[in-house]
Amino acid sequence: MAFIAKLLGLLGSPAKPTPAAPVSTRPSATRRTRTSMLRDDWLTLTQPDFFGRAHRSPNKRWIVGCNDSDGAGRGGHREGGNGRVVLVDHPADRVMHELTCFARPMDAAVSDTGSYIVQDAGFGSALMGDVIAIDTDGRERYRRRYSANIFNIGLSRCGRYAAVQTANAPSDDGNLLEVLDLDLGCAVFSVQPATGWADKYSFHVDSDGRLQALSVEHNGLGRFSYSAAGEFRDAKAFQVTRLDKGDYATKLMAARDLIQGDASPDNAAKALATADAALAEGAKDQPDWGAIAHRVRGESYEALGQLPQALAAFEHALSLNPKVGIQKRATALRKKLGTG
User: Fold this and answer.
1) Distance between CA atoms of 66 and 302, rounded to whole angstroms?
2) Under the phi-then-psi rule, with left for phi > 0, alpha for psi from -120 to 50, and beta for the rest, what region is 114?
3) Which pTM does this prediction carry?
4) What is the widest separation between alpha-carbon atoms in the chain?
5) So where are the chain's domains?
6) What is the pLDDT of residues 278-330, one digit of tens each?
7) CA dihedral 278, 284, 285, 287 (to 10 degrees)
8) Using CA atoms, how far apart are residues 167 and 148, in angstroms rounded to an integer?
9) Per-residue model confidence as pLDDT tens digits over 51-63
10) What fold characterizes domain 36-233?
């Protein structure tokens, strides 16, 4: 009877639940907060305290951060107060070094080896800029000063070659495309850029590390190549691409170069069609560009022997911009047609 009573007692009483283990809301003791954080094109460091523009190597391992501020809230044009540059091994979350020897570090490019270059805009208002090559230990490898503002820079994946494009300036360094050999400390070639200011650069290097070619990339147009001696290889392709794929400003510059370079009937017809397309795409709404478009139309009509149409185009161009550069040609056409 005692056994039956015990059994009935077990069946009739609910089992007590085993209490759940408490859930910790505290972070794991083994988790470590990263020193470096990358978001879009910006790098943040907690140690040292840093925030600046991030430049990543092609293999995504290395990051160079540039901060133009003097540390007291002053950035941009000034007369003193150096900026900061850091090199970070991102996967390892390791700050390799921090440098404060640059006046105004505006841009950088880093190779797959961790060596990098910095564009330093310097102090004051003079047209100038330095390109400085730095190794992973923070030591300066090479420096080149330009008597012109630097538009942009590029670096080969191996870290040996740099490309530098300067802005217009009244000096030998103005509007220059230059490739530097950072190992030898010299220029490979210096030329006036056949394609204008490029957006990106890529370097073709052989198995022995020798430069074979430089490609310049223009957004919306494509890539075009220079030889290792600085010879532009893709003149025809660049001309065709500008006429077909450029915005209206690019198309007008290409049409102007085409008709002024060789005013054959075929080129004149192509330049005329391009100028008409540029007007339809928005040049007509900008007086300066509209004047250039109608000048190109006038030059094209003149090359085709259609002089009344040429004069009408010239007069339209002059009504938009009297300084478009065709006053004498329009006067000569008026005399030839007996209207002036």
Assistant:
1) 54
2) left
3) 0.81
4) 138
5) 36-233, 242-337
6) 999 999 999 999 999 999 999 999 999 999 999 999 999 999 999 999 999 99
7) 110
8) 6
9) 999 999 999 999 9
10) Methylamine Dehydrogenase; Chain H (2.130.10)
